[in-house]
């Protein structure tokens, strides 16, 4: 049975296609260094990866439930909390796809090369950049790998050292982001992977600078499963529900409009500057407000669609609007998407605010 698993996979890891024969040798023969792993764990114990399946113990030992992995992939899929990402369905699909490729003869060029953008700014005094290990795990999960001969060849790193309470941090951040991404636009890489952890205004600006003609993959940041903290989740299966509502002050001649976006937390409009409180308002909310409202790529797509509806509502209800005052409590991916999906040459300028302990303060403008 073990030999069958190796033959089905052609001696390659079914997740990353690493060749698993010849990594070591004695005087007489090569030593294989792959590992035959269970998709659904061999037992039904609490610590057995994906062990809650309805498969019987005998079915778990069949070749259909076994897959050939390299040591690194085996460690990742069996890590604590990994079942939220490396689900039974995900692993079964990759095993099936890999073995289908083997049957269609030796075409393993299925991993897409990508440029990597890492942007880090201080949040409450702390820098929390994505680590090499976290970036590697997230790219691996999406069938991506860093472009170039060396991982650093296509990496664009921005570190914004000023604290988010320093008034000059916004100017510093915008200059650094714009300068670094200018080089990216001239690069030959059609796919760009983005790992960003910074205050919301800088993330919105980052999104506005990303080329909408490229294949942009923005990665989330979760607090659990440290090595897998930047990996998209596969659950829940139903995308989050977002709603857009126009405000009660329908002054069609208004040149300034507030848009509040409450996703990771409610936006308290009473903390906005006094001169904004009487402005017309459009609200975007999610059905279940909280830090885990966006967990999957389908959730992010649903948010992006709702954000575009909010911008369209401003344009249709307030045709004279020149400035949208954005008060947002959103995860990092939603902040970047807000900048990406704002058409700065055609839509009103975005005035983006930062929440302080006391109130919302204007940080920067986009468009």
Characterization of the model:
- α7 (200-209) crosses α9 and α8 (297-317) packs across α9 (332-340).
- The chain has helices spanning 2-9, 57-60, 71-77, 88-103, 132-141, 169-185, 200-209, 297-317, 332-340; strands at 21-25, 30-32, 35-38, 66-69, 112-121, 144-146, 155-160, 191-197, 215-218, 242-246, 256-262, 281-286, 323-329, 349-355, 360-366.
- The chain has three domains: 2-103, no CATH class; 112-228, Rossmann fold, CATH 3.40.50; 242-366, Rossmann fold.
- The N and C termini lie far apart (62 Å).
- The protein is elongated.
- It is of the alpha/beta class and 367 residues long.
- It contains nine helices and 15 strands.
- A six-stranded mixed β-sheet has the order 10-12-11-13-14-15, with helices on one face. Strands 5, 6, 7, 8 and 9 form a five-stranded parallel β-sheet that branches. A two-stranded antiparallel sheet has the order 1-2.
- InterPro entries: SAVED.
Defining traits:
367 residues, alpha/beta, Rossmann fold, 3 domains, six-stranded mixed beta sheet, five-stranded parallel beta sheet, SAVED, SAVED domain-containing protein
């Amino acid at each position: 049975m073990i030999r069958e698993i190796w033959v089905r996979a052609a001696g390659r890891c079914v997740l990353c296609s690493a060749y698993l024969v010849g990594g070591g040798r004695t005087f007489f023969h090569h030593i294989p260094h792959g590992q035959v792993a269970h998709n659904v764990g061999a037992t039904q114990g609490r610590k057995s990866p994906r062990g809650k399946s309805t498969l019987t113990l005998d079915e778990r030992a069949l070749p259909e439930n076994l897959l050939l992995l390299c040591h690194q992939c085996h460690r990742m899929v069996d890590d604590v909390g990994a079942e939220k990402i490396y689900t039974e369905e995900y692993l079964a699909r990759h095993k099936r796809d890999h073995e289908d490729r083997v049957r269609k003869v030796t075409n393993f060029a299925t991993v897409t090369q990508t440029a990597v953008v890492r942007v880090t700014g201080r949040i409450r005094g702390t820098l929390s950049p994505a680590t090499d290990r976290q970036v590697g795990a997230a790219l691996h999960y999406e069938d991506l790998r860093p472009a170039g001969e060396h991982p650093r060849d296509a990496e664009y790193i921005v570190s914004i050292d000023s604290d988010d309470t320093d008034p000059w941090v916004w100017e510093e951040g915008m200059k650094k982001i714009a300068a670094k991404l200018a080089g990216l636009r001239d690069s030959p890489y059609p796919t760009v992977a983005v790992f960003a952890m910074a205050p919301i205004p800088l993330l919105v600006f980052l999104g506005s600078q990303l080329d909408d003609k490229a294949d942009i993959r923005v990665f989330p940041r979760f607090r659990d499963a440290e090595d897998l903290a930047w990996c998209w989740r596969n659950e829940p299966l139903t995308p989050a529900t977002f709603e857009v509502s126009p405000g009660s002050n329908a002054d069609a001649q208004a040149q300034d409009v507030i848009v509040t976006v409450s996703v990771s937390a409610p936006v308290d409009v009473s903390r906005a500057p006094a001169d904004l409180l009487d402005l017309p308002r459009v609200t975007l909310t999610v059905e279940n407000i909280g830090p885990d409202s966006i967990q999957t790529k389908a959730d992010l797509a649903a948010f992006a669609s709702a954000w575009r509806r909010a911008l369209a509502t401003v344009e249709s209800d307030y045709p004279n609007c020149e400035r949208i005052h954005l008060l947002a409590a959103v995860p990092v991916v939603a902040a970047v998407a807000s900048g990406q999906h704002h058409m700065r040459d055609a839509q009103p300028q975005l005035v983006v605010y930062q929440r302080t302990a006391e109130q919302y303060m204007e940080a920067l403008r986009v468009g």
